[in-house]
Amino acid sequence: MRPLTSEDPRAVGEYRTLVRLGAGGMGVVYLARSPGGALAAVKVIRAEHAADPGFRARFRREAEAAGRITGPWVVPVTGTDPEAREPWLATAFVPGPSLGEAVEEHGPLPVATVRALGSRLAEALAAVHEAGLLHRDVKPGNVLLALDGPRLIDFGIARHAGATALTATGAVIGTPGFLAPEQASAGPLGPGCDIFSLGCVLVYAATGRRPFGTGTPAGLLFRTVHEEPDLSGVPDPLLPLVAACLAKDPADRPSAREVADRLAGGGARWEVPGLSTVVAERSAAALALPDPEPPTLVQEPGPPRPSRRRVLMAGAAGAVLLAGGGTAAWVAGRRGSTPAATPRALPTYRIGLHADLSGPGKALGLAHERGIRLAVDAHNARTDKAFALALRTEDDGGDTDRAPGVADRFIADPGTLAVIGPTADVVAKAVVSRYERARLAQVVVSGRSTTADWAGTTSLCVLRPFDASLHLGLTHYLVNAAPDGRIVVVEDLADPQGSWAIANGLRDLSIKGAAPTVHTVEADARGFAPVAHAAVAAGAGSVVYAGSSPGRAARLATDLAAAGFTGTGLSTGPVLAPAFLRDAGKAAEGWVFAEAYTDPAALPAAKAFTAGHRERFGEAPATWSAEAYDAVGLIARAAGSTSAVDAARDGLAASIFRSDYRGITRRLSFYGHHMAQFRTGIFLYRVKKGRAGFLGLYSSV
């Protein structure tokens, strides 16, 4: 629970808000009190999402669907207004922890408790399915633990079975690691998808581990579709039923009623270690909350050197607001106040750069450092700033064994406000977990993926779309700008996970009345001549290389040229590298790439940055330098708008996730935790005369 900020409503419909229970990119959840005094959890959707008619229609359906579901193991809806400027939905308040919290704190549950958990969740799903609905996001975080049993919550993605999703074609709705293969492949859904998710939840409850491991969303989706679950450690009495729930074919899974019946016997008993203590503490804290008072301004007495907490408290009350395309700031004084006669010393907060500055990736690390230095200087040049910034760099040399030590040094420095990096391609779990335990915001600018468990982090802020999402830029291009002719996708098994993410995103897409043809090439294939000739024979107008190797993509380009292909080649991510341009030569001409970085020289908003970079460093900014500049602006904005209770650095990540920041490269806003929205972060390039030319944001091409 966190106190209300000055921007939070004091009433939502007939409910009086008391505290915040949580916040994300979609909206805020409040603990509120009804006119009769009952406690409720009220979810309020942000206005920018409600402005989308499709989203509002989906929320209206959610409210209607959730209100129709009854049963002892679902949380009842107590009020809703889908037509409000910011739509909201209220449910009964459950003071218990989530299943994820309980397992993380106390470890796997006893077998008897898992049986009771599964039986009662299956009863809840039976009620959902009998109402003609699907939940589609059954996971530990959506299971709350009460003294008498679990409660299934969050029908934010529930819909009528068989209804058309109000989402982009091919979008995956749900949580990777707990969704069914048919969800991972964006296929048709039925009640079986919830049963598969329930099986994943039971494995987690019984073992403390996910059946398909941890890591990037793309990796989890790949393993869900193509690999068998890891059921080691699942107690023998549960194993046959759990294995049945996790069958790849939905037709082979039991129904919710069958799961409930099979688990209800055998000594099912609801005993969760430590639950009664947690429920008692949370209940007492909730019941003791007074009605909120009207918001008041926080007034600083003006000490010679204000603490970081007091400076950021001023930001929450409207005294500090960072805005604009860089790190511009303005300070609004209290009504009737006059400027201080003597300037006060400002606190200085450090931005940490965790980078490879001496190893194989030192060029990328240097690009980050230069962008950050320019941003820090721009911020400090302001005469109306509320605090100063400084840069501290730590070099891990691109060595995964050194990286945790770098994280530990930043964590030990109380003056470090946030850390940008690491700059490695893969952000290691060992690094993320350290920053997470310290609640130090970690802002990733260029990392292509992570091995960290998304569900276990609240301080990891990723500003770029990972490589597995870049195919969305190609999809838009193929629909709107591709030449006539068939579309051929070459799935290169030299990188099975990366190639599958791209190919699967395009496989079922209907473009110009036909689905793309997918050709699989084995990892040990030395060339692509057979696929190239097949593409030409089929009249292909576009060929997509689904893979990550610049060298192998160059071989495909040369084999296509030799076969007489005159259409457009396309690919994503790391393929657009000097090795591809060099090895493909003239065959690279006209290839189109979807990337997560911009060319600041081509952006009007980055004109001053580009000129400043040339003046300071004697050359044009390198790739990712402008994005690092924007990362500093985002951090400064979040620091200036952090509420008083969140003022310490452990609240900065939550403030970042609430931000809507216009930088020099793009607009940065977040889906919820972790990742900035991809729709402003995927850009297209076309090779011309041996160089990659910037085309712009994918949706504008």
Enter the CATH topology name of the largest domain.
Rossmann fold
The end-to-end span amounts to: 45 Å
**Tally of helical segments:** 22
Report the radius of gyration as a whole number of Å: 26 Å
Largest sheet: 7 strands, antiparallel
When the domains are counted, the total is: 4
General form: globular
The CATH superfamily of the largest domain turns out to be Response regulator
Q: What is the percentage of strand-forming residues?
A: 15-25%
Considering DSSP H and I runs of 4 or more, what fraction of the residues is helical? Answer: 25-40%
- Unreliable parts: 157-171, 294-342, 643-648
| Whole-number mean pLDDT | 84
**Got a strand count?**
29
Q: What does this 3D model show about the protein?
A:
- The chain is of the alpha/beta class.
- It folds into four domains: 1-93, Phosphorylase Kinase, domain 1 (2-Layer Sandwich), CATH 3.30.200.20; 95-287, Orthogonal Bundle (Transferase(Phosphotransferase), domain 1); 308-466 and 606-670, Rossmann fold (3-Layer(aba) Sandwich), CATH 3.40.50; 468-595 and 685-700, 3-Layer(aba) Sandwich (Rossmann fold), CATH 3.40.50.2300.
- The chain is built from 22 helices and 29 strands.
- Strand 6 (77-81) and strand 7 form a beta hairpin.
- It is globular, with a radius of gyration of 26 Å.
- It starts with a strand and ends with a strand.
- The model is unreliable at 157-171, 294-342 and 643-648 (pLDDT under 50).
